[in-house]
Write a structure and sequence with these properties.
This protein has 221 residues and is of the alpha+beta class. It contains seven helices and five strands; from the N terminus they run H-H-H-H-H-H-E-E-E-E-E-H.
Length: 221
């Protein structure tokens, strides 16, 4: 079993290392979506995705063993269509993204995805009886970006998980996730601070090298 990566220069805050937070972020990365539904409401999309992904984790022994290869395959096949991962990576990298070459941008997306997959691969074994409730949506039908608020139950206390979504015609559900907030901490914003420090010290190529080395180190564990 590959353990979650916690001793990393790109680690999340201590709050997000607690089991339930880790489980939910891991679950996001390995969610299986049902067949595409045209013009699906954003809150219905999140409810469907999160419910399906929890069921998948509970019923897949390979995932629960922490198999990062299996996790990565599912991310590519089932999750990436529901994320604007380029936007997530660009936001995490910050202003330096605009100066990056196409090759650098491709490498950054590749290494950022690998970092997330390996960081949360060990957490999936902790998925048990979690369930999700989607709160009433506060958005107009014409809104192109919305915030969907949910609450995860199954631990000592409910955990608030919020998703930022954008409307896009080429997404399977009509929506793509581009950030998420776990108990008040935005995932992409957290990495932006850490990546910015690395870029200031070593530049874009230095960040790519650091991410690559970290991911290769995790692969040897």
């Amino acid at each position: 079993m590959n353990p979650p990566l916690t001793a990393s220069p790109f680690a999340l805050p201590a709050l997000l290392k607690k089991p339930l937070w880790m489980v939910w972020l891991a679950a996001l990365l390995i969610g299986l979506a049902a067949p595409a539904r045209a013009e699906e409401a954003p809150d219905a999309f999140i409810k469907r995705l999160t419910s399906d992904l929890l069921d998948t984790v509970k019923n897949d022994p390979t995932l629960k063993s922490g198999d990062t290869q299996r996790l990565s395959q599912l991310v590519d096949q089932k999750v990436m269509p529901h994320l604007n991962f380029q936007r997530m990576t660009a936001s995490a990298v910050g202003p330096s993204w605009r100066q990056a070459s196409p090759e650098q941008k491709a490498r950054l997306q590749e290494e950022f995805k690998a970092l997330l997959v390996r960081t949360y691969s060990g957490a999936v074994s902790q998925v048990k009886d979690q369930s999700v409730t989607v709160k009433p949506l506060r958005a107009a039908a014409s809104d192109n970006e919305v915030l969907v608020r949910t609450e995860v139950r199954g631990g000592a206390e409910p955990v608030a998980i919020d998703y930022r979504l954008e409307k896009t015609a080429d997404a399977p559900s009509g929506w793509r996730i581009y950030n998420l907030n776990v108990a008040g901490i935005w995932l992409v914003d957290t990495y932006r601070t850490q990546f910015g420090q690395e870029i200031n010290a070593k530049g874009i190529d230095g960040l790519i090298v650091s991410l690559s080395e970290r991911n290769k180190g995790g692969a040897r564990k």
